[in-house]
Amino acid sequence: MSNSIPVTSPLLPPLEEFMPFLEEIWASKRLTNGGPFHEQLEAALAEHLGVEHVCLFSNGTLALVTALQALRVTGEVITTPYSFVATAHSLLWNSLKPVFVDIDPLTNNLDPKRIEEAITPATTAILPVHCYGIPCDVDAIQKIADTYGLKVIYDAAHAFGVQHNGTSVLNHGDLSVLSFHATKVFNTFEGGAIICHDRKTKQRIDYLKNFGFADEVTIMAPGINGKMNEIQAAFGMLQLRHIDAALQARKRLFDGYAEALADVPGITLLEQPAGVDWNYAYCPVFIEASRFGVSRDEMYNRYRARDVLVRRYFYPLITEFPMYRSLPSSDAAKLTHAHLISSRVLCLPIYPDLTDEQQDSIIDILLSARGA
């Protein structure tokens, strides 16, 4: 292949569609601080996603950090080792102690049975991740939270537009946090959002993301600068015009992979649970070397040699990084499923601009490696 193929790529509408937005921003001279496009995007996303309130941020990590601040979380927080490291970093930035528990090997999400076992008097919250956009067992997690008086903040970075039993998965828990990074299904170059369920909570979050300002002379809280600027917001408004087509393209590509790889020994694909309207954010395959004949890492190197930039999402586990590995909950013996999945996962390229010819080549590289 003459050009590198990334595992994912931003949806980029034609530049000429974006120019009127830029001209309007320049004419208004409002570049940030809750300008017109910021307000429009919050309202448009709330309607599109079927949620009450959207609080836009300049990136998803700041949104995670602020969500924990907004709920005044303290002490220990139960979370997953199988995620992007920002999930756990948001806890350390809030002086919170991560407590890692194992995942369900079918959904790759937190196993509710392991959550309950990890609760101590210091536990105040649960931070689950809807991994690859597959919803967590939200009913079981909420039951545990209600029983023990815990907050639930969902890292929903992968879950834009995902519905569970006919309603947005973002309506579960106390808060949900989205990422609008360029590699996500919906993006604003960089960006993110907190989804909340009442006006009072939104007001607190809006204070926190703007240094705590209530007005020119009043500071309500020790806030941070997490605001989304007008160019990001305008790009988000443009993205919304194309999101349905983008999701259809992703589904077609995922179905193509699933059909081609369904009966390959040693290859397992992610299954879409019943009742879930999914967004096809990622296409992870899980490679069992003893049956396939080639290990995940060997397959990774074969793709990289052909300029196909597959990714091992998520390897290493968060618990293997220096700032986390000394925690008692990072003991590999307690995280057997997470370690096994992390050693097998390989995310194949999936994004709207991926051509049929490119996808065929990606599939051929995998199939030709069997038994090698």
From TrEMBL:
Domain of life the protein comes from: Bacteria
The entry assigns this protein to a family as follows: Belongs to the DegT/DnrJ/EryC1 family.
Which Gene3D superfamilies does the record match to this protein? Type I PLP-dependent aspartate aminotransferase-like (Major domain) (3.40.640.10)
- Gene Ontology molecular functions: dTDP-4-amino-4,6-dideoxy-D-glucose transaminase activity
Q: What is this protein called?
A: dTDP-4-amino-4,6-dideoxy-D-glucose aminotransferase VioA
- Do you know which InterPro entries this protein is assigned to? DegT/StrS_aminotransferase, PyrdxlP-dep_Trfase, PyrdxlP-dep_Trfase_major
Q: Which Pfam families match?
A: DegT_DnrJ_EryC1
EC annotation? 2.6.1.33
Q: Recite the UniProt keywords alphabetically.
A: Aminotransferase, Pyridoxal phosphate, Transferase
